[in-house]
Each structure stands twice: as structure tokens, then as C-alpha cells.
Amino acid sequence: MPLDRECDRCGAERQTLVSVHGRGVPHEEAGHQVVYDHVKVLGCPGCGHGAYWTFSHDCWNDPWEEPWDMDWTRGLTPDDLARLRQGLADCPAPQAGRCGCAAHVALRGSTDAVAGRTPGVDLTDAGLPYFRPAPQVG
Hints:
The protein is mainly β. The chain has 2 helices and 6 strands.
């Protein structure tokens, strides 16, 4: 994967907290058929900050015609990660991007709201986590 897993704040290795969405099989693995993409949230054990990571792979065209891999990251605060962990407390499989638990369903249902924007994490009245656009600072 193209993501540099090193935290840009403190240099510690970021770890996947939750795989929100996953589609396809990674390139060069058995069963790969052109497209592989996912949304994950990474957390840093060093400083407590995190990243909302979107990755997209599409090898339909030759690599010299267009890039096969694209990824985007947006920062998440320690408070966002704390709410996310709280909302995922009952999830049986945080690393499974296709998990059907209520928390995963709520997170997947809110990814469009933060496309191209800096996300934050909140909890519904039922305690389920969801992404929302972070407040603009300044």
C-alpha cells in the first residue's frame, strides 16, 4: 500500500483501528479483478492523533496511461478517536471492512458526508459512531 504508516506528528507507526469499507482483492493477490479500495481509520500510539485513510486501486488501464493507486488522508483528533473506540466497543470485528454490525453500518453510511473534507467523529443518541465534517478553524 502506498500509505506511509509513520505518523506525521511524532514518527510512531500508525495502526489500523477500524476498516470501515473494503471492496475487491489487493493487486497481485489471488482473485484480484481490477478494482480494490477501502476506507480505514488509523491511530497513532505515540501521540494519540489519527488519520482517515481512503485508498483506491484501479488497474484497468496501463500504468503509464493513468496511476493505478491513489490515496488520501485527513487528520483525526485524539477526541475523535476516543469517540470512535467508544462507538466500536460492541463491534465483533473492527478490522473487517465488510462487518455488518450497527457501528460499521453507521460509519459506512456517513463516509459521503466527509468526501474531500476533514472529518470528525461523533456518536448518535444510540452510541453509534459516524463521520461528520470537522468544524472549520480560523
